[in-house]
Amino acid sequence: MMKFLAYLICYCIYPFSFLVPRSRKKWAFGSFRGAFNDNAKYLFIHVTEQMPDIDCAWLSVNRTTVRTIKEKGLKAYHVLSPAGIWFALRAKCWFFNAYSSDIMFCLSGGAKLVNLWHGLPLKRIEFDIESGILADRFVKKTLKERYFHPEVFKRPDYVVSSTELFSEVFARSFRIPLERCLNLGLARNEILTWPEEKRRAFIDRYEPTETLDLIGQMGNFDRVFVYMPTWRDSQNDFVTAGFDFKSMEEALSENNALLLIKPHANTFIDPVILNGLARIKLLPSTLDIYPVLPYTDVLITDYSSVMYDYILMEKKDVILYLFDKEEYVNERPFIWSFEDMTYGHRASSFETLLELVGNVGLCPDEANKAVLVKKCWGENSLDTCERISSFFKQS
Length: 395
Fold this sequence. Notes:
- This protein is α/β, with parallel strands linked by helices.
- The chain contains 18 helices and 13 strands.
- The strands form two sheets. Strands 3-2-1-4-5-6-7 form a seven-stranded parallel beta sheet, sandwiched between helices. It has a six-stranded parallel beta sheet with strand order 10-9-8-11-12-13.
């Protein structure tokens, strides 16, 4: 009942948000669960540093996030504070990683909504979904789903994409014209290809001490793996089901290697299962992994779009751990041929995964990787923040 009433209040407020005149010189930024991360984070920092004529602010429902951003010398407001509400109502451009609810849906009337999204899709997303657990929302579009997820049904004005191939997917998924899908690249990927001096300066300036300490610890190992599986619509405990952590610890020890586990924000892993293991480290879901990725050697993933970002870096390898592929496809089908649109060594069992982890001589297939990079990114993997911000400043 409380949730119902909260949304009812939201619907009452929403029409009034159209009445406040909005300024093209004010841009609002936000992310899911009130965090400071992903594409919106990197674009926000770029605009703050490079476009002093734009008044931009990060809006969040998380007071800790707001305080942390302010400590970095950046502008941030709690979205329900008087200053936060006023900024949200006055900002013409809203940039977010998923939906307008990353900021506050009921204050979004009249704003130009720019969905930066959080990766290039391998699996079907949003209104491109045809079946499965999310069918009530995206296929049946039930009244309940419409009432409790208005941000999903409000179409963005723009979606930032990378190439025509992916723009066609985004256009279907968000039900917007193809020309509103902008082939500009993803803001978060810049840090992956920056020169080391520039990357370290950014990390020192904007990342928490936990990230700096982690990168320092990683230097003690000969090889660093990072496991980043996508989430399951069913919310099954697939990580513990598909991993023998003690056996993995032994394999890592033989090669002086470290395994970082960075779960999806929708996936919970009980840290107790890693007690006593020195070479497997569970990272908090709030940690921004992108400043860390350049210091890793091998990505272990499954059906996650992080693979497309990771292959932008040179001398990196990918292992696709696909122990539940058949079950996963029944939950959420792929958009296209998995074989044609993925890169990396395949492991369909944990035993094969252990063999690959123990094979310290893994060599990336640079030719196949180059083909996939071209499909995914074209010429849009560099200077993405400048291209995105310039487009909206001029539009």
